[in-house]
Structures are given as structure tokens and as C-alpha cells.
Amino acid sequence: MAAFSSKASIRSISLPARSHPTTLRVEEELNKIKSWEASSSSKVETICVGLSGLSELYRCIEELLNLPLTQQALAQHQHQKWFNDLLLENSLMYLDICGNTRDAILLMQETIRELQSGLRRIKVGDLSIESIVTTYNCSRRKMRKEIARSLASLKPLGNEIEAFPMLNLDHHLSAVVRVLNETSLITSSIFHSFLLFLSAPMLKPKPSRWSLVSKLVQKGVHELASKGQHENMNELEGVDLALNSLLMHNSSKDIEAPKIKSAQIKLDALDVSMKGLEKGLECLFRHLIQTRVFGLNIISQ
């Protein structure tokens, strides 16, 4: 998975043993998700695991913010810049990204289902293959454009903890601020990787690259997999390759039927994957709202 620019500053944290048990649970979840990130890939299943881990992390953050001890301590510093950044501004940014990304995924799901329906009705040599593939590619471009906006809005976060007035905070609040900062950093990193997956370049053949694409297609999916090349493709790239193969061999009755079946299988898998991503985003969205609500409630006290 592509690394975010702030990833180098995300380190395993270890809070003192006298920290509140809830703070220690947040630390455990942070270190779990950092271990996942270090060994993750760009496959949808892996990204879904990351989103699930992030949701669990924010669930623990909710418990931490719900502690009277935490709320009282934060209330005394609600006018500090770090309070606004960690509990209000960053959560709003992540909520916007969640919503925009979910909308883009829903649009992509609709197009996938239309393409699935079209492939079930298609016949070998049917010129409408090019039409339905073009429709899918247009949807991919729209999704990439929307995701590009989200990437642009995802501000790079440096090691902001260094700028916080830690010396003026008591032990518990100092621990809370540290885990909130670490959580914000890891959220940015995972979102960045997730968005990069969704905005992956389209594997669309161009005149200058026909020979290369032709060689890849002629090897066939099974041969690519046997050499480990196909296994490195993510779900979007797999669908792109299958659809390009259909376009190149549309006039061949000997090749077309199995290639239509292969494209259908890959589209089915991508549809399931997109549902998983949507579910992961929905769960994370709810936890992000709750985190922001806690911050707003502290201000209103």
C-alpha cells in the first residue's frame, strides 16, 4: 500500500503503566493498526481490515472521551489550538472524505451492476461490448475525479504533537492528547492509501501500447497468475484487464465466451469488494460523528 507522507512520524507508542486503562486500550488498538499498516497491500480485503481496525480504534476513543476525568481536563483547554485541531477540524475533514468517498463508491457499484447485466445479455461479436465497457470506463473516470478532490482535501499532517504544550498538561490529559494525535496521524495515512487505491490509473490500451497489452492478454489470466503477476493486481486492475481482453478479442468465437465469463467473475468480486468498502466507511463515519459530538459537547459545557 502506498505510504502517506506522514507515515514516518507514526510510531508505536507506549504510555506509562499508570495511565488510565481506557487510554491503554487505545494504545493497544493504535499499535495493532500500525502493525497491520506495515504489512498491508492494495487489495480490497486488506483495506477493509484497515477500516475495521480504524473503527475499533475510534470506538475506544469514544470511551476515552466519555470519561468524566477526560471531559473535565479537556474543558479547561477547549480554547487551545490543539483542541480544535484534534477534536473538531480533523474529524470534520475525515467526515467529509468518508461521505464523498461513499458517494463515489455507490456510483461505481451502480455502474458495475449495469455492466454485469450487459455482459449476461451480450453475444460473441456484439458491438455493444465496446459501448458497455466505455460506460464503465466513464464511471471509473468520474470516481477518480471525485477521489482526487478528497485526496486534495486530505491535508498532510506532520508530527503535530511537538507543537503541543505538553509540559502544561497533567498526566492523564497529556496521554489523551498524545493518543488523539497518533489517531489523527494513522487515520490520515490509511485514508490516503485507501483513496490511492480507488484512484488507481485505468489499464486502458493506447495505440502506442497495444503490443504490450496484447502480450499480457495473450498470456491469459491463468498463466499470469501462475507467474505471480496476476496476484499482484488489485480488484480494479483485474477488471480493467478482463474488459480490455474482451475488446481485443470480440470477433473471436473461440476466445470470447470464456473471456466474458472471466469478466463476469471479476466484476462479481469487485461488486462484493465495493460493498465491503461501503460498509467499512459507514461504520467509521458513525464513530467519527460521535467523536466530533464529544468535542462539541465539551465546548457547550
UniProtKB/TrEMBL annotation:
Q: Which domain of life is it from?
A: Eukaryota
Record's protein name = DUF241 domain protein
InterPro entries named among the record's database cross-references: BPS1_pln (IPR004320)
PANTHER family in alphabetical order: DUF241 DOMAIN PROTEIN, OS06G0725500 PROTEIN
Q: Which GO terms describe its biological process?
A: root development; shoot system development
